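User: Sequence for Aryl sulfotransferase below. Tokens please.
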Amino acid sequence: MNKDTSSIKWPLKKREVYHSHFDSTIWNDFPFRDDDIFIATYAKSGTTWIQQIVSQLLFNGEINRNVANMSPWIDFRLPPKEIKLATIAEQQHRRFLKTHLPLDALVYSPKAKYLYIARDGRDVLWSYYHHHSSHTEAVYEMLNEACGPDVEPFKPPQDDIIEYYRKWLEQDGYPIWSFWENIATWWEYRHLPNLLMLHFNTLKKDMPGEIRRIAQFLEIPIDENKWDLILKHCSFDYMKEHAEQSSPLGGALWKGGAKTFINKGTNNRWRDVLSEADSTRYEKLALEKLGPECAHWLATGKMPT
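Assistant: Structure tokens for Aryl sulfotransferase:
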């Protein structure tokens, strides 16, 4: 960034968020570097895909880069924050870390770069249901042991996907966290010079163009001799085949392993399952919670002009 940023009103942390999965207090002690990259999303919105893209840009198409190890979920409860902060501090490469927090629950650095990717909530839910249903029993034990008695325990899904969707929608993200506030808090600051808003649909339609846009934003020059390799390594088929490099603990947290974590990467699986009323309810809530411009972007990937 070469622009004068002295007049910008930067986001401030306003609250702590506690959940069976995360503890936002880790940000209070985070030692930023000026070239840090943060990948922010709601769950199952393209997080791992963006991590893979950033890795390929940083390491010029190299294979055998374990993205899950290099790019930890910073606010996740496991491992304990003292261990996680120490591990992150030891990294010598340009760091790229992920968060699933709303923007107002983290500390925001004016010098770092932020990539936020969003996806239609119905696609998110279909992907997350598979993700949640495929956890091993050990996952629930570890999370519930880490979160303590003041946080609602995390349990396997108790409903079929339709009822799960309805509860998620009507209870604002249950059993994970609020979808609407996650989108809204990042959308509010979409004009910041160090925040790039991305969309899952646009990335699927034009992955080469979006990767170039990401590279330009991150100020990473592209080696055109490695361009085809970078594209290959960011494809869904390649990531599925090498899923153990993208999956936390090599996929040990999911039944079926890493290839369960990297599942389908497709949209619209809900269209033949949801009733018109169930789908319309989502669209009405999107308008109510986000406003027409953000709701339209979330549905289509098209930014307002």
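The first strand starts at residue 37 and ends at 41.
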